[in-house]
Amino acid sequence: MIWRAVYCLATWAALPLVLVYFAWRARREPAYAKHWSERLGVVARRTDRPLWVHAASVGEVILVAPLIHALQERWPDHAILLTTMTPTGRAEARRRFGSSLALGYVPLDTWGATRRFIALARPSVAIIAETELWPNLIAAASAANIPLTMVNATLSAESARRFARWPLASVARFMLSRFARIAAASEQHAERFVQLGALASHTKAVGNLKYDQPASRDLAEQASHLRADWQVGERPMWVAASTHAGEEAALLNTFRRLRQSTPNCLWVLAPRHPQRFDEVADLLGRSGYRIARRSVGDRVDRDIDIILADTLGEVPMFYAAADVVFVGGSLVTGIGGHNVIEAAVAGRVVATGPHVGEWQDIIDAMARVGAAAIANTPEALADQLSAWLADTAKRQAAGQAGAELAASHRGALTKTLAQLEPLLAAKQNG
Asked: Rounded to 5 degrees, what are φ and ψ at 342?
């Protein structure tokens, strides 16, 4: 196939630029300077034929955590290798799994690195979280007769249209036809994969794994303590989480407008990426508001206007402590939104911007019960938050309806395991 030859040549030529990019990132994030050999496919040679799970970053690691725990319980003799693409994803994996599995970086998608990784790691089954499609990696695994599976597989209508165009149509067909199992998040997503070349007999809608994230039993208690520590009292509290570059400045306008109707509102802002914490702190510092940074233990009292939640792993607690929630990656293009289910499970109403990508179907379902809304502008967002905050009883009822909707969609984990079971059994028997 001509496109494969062109792609292999292009990725080989781009490799020096990618390594320079990692070196540049390492100046701000030292973790990028580590484990470079893994990026080139050099990993420890294994003879135990591990189950290989790939989760690109923090969100995907959180997504597959219940699945990995279930696999460890059901198949305790199966060694697991978990790869990520980002240092933050790797750190989250280490925090969640400790030494119970092996960690590494997924190789860059060059012909040599991917073949080297497959030859050394020798995985028995590959489980790819969500839609991480890399032609050379898929080709290398397929050539080695490693069953490829995709879990919580999603493909937005926009992405499907893009893949359907020449020459990407041939690329999509090449990749998707090589999957032994595709556990799609919904019937619509399953249909899109089949239309692009996945085998219908290997593609099944099992539901969204994000509904099956376990809730911490003491989360409500933690949230109560947090509100008391921050002296929130009856102050309305708005949490904006997983924000990206360009969104914080827009949300400052939202906050200014919201303060007109709700003068004592407390805003908690949790940017998506740790490397941007200082940048966002500088932006907030120029706003004229009184700021507290979570990471340095700044005291929070009733005089504080904004809390910069510059820590990791605490967003679920912030949601549980909030009155209203905004989920970022949705006011700017190119991101496609982030997990709104997490806020729904906490019983909170949630707003987003208009650019939500694959989350559209879920947000529409939540909106039908009043638990979610899409705001096209920062001003419209302020008006929506203000309306929710003005009617406590209605807001809480809508949040509860969202929690019940999320609970009704649980079960994807069990169905996903059922899809993987024959492949894992064959590995054990083989």
From this structure: -60, -40
Q: Which of 60, 92, 247, 342 is catalytic?
A: 60
Q: Is the entire prediction scored with pTM above 0.85?
A: yes
60: Cα within 13 Å, side-chain hemisphere: 25
Cis peptide before 167 (omega within 30 of 0): yes
All residues at 6 or more sequence positions from 164 whose CB lies less than 8 Å from its CB, including other chains: 172, 195, 196
**Residue partners of 389: CB distance under 8 A and separation at least 6:** 236, 238, 261, 262, 265, 323, 324, 395
Alpha-carbon gap, residue 108 to 249, rounded angstroms: 34
Q: Give the pLDDT score at 429.
A: 63
**154-201: per-residue pLDDT in tens?**
998 888 999 999 889 999 999 999 999 999 999 999 999 999 999 999
pLDDT at 426 over 90: no
Cα separation, 35 vs 222, in Å, equals: 36
209 neighbors 66 (Cβ within 8 angstroms): yes
Q: Examine the residue annotation and report whether 92 is marked as an active-site residue of this protein.
A: no
| Domains by residue range for the chain, with CATH | 2-207+411-429 (3.40.50.11720), 219-408 (3.40.50.2000)
24 vs 379: CA distance, rounded Å = 37
pLDDT of residue 361: 86
Residue 398's pLDDT is: 98
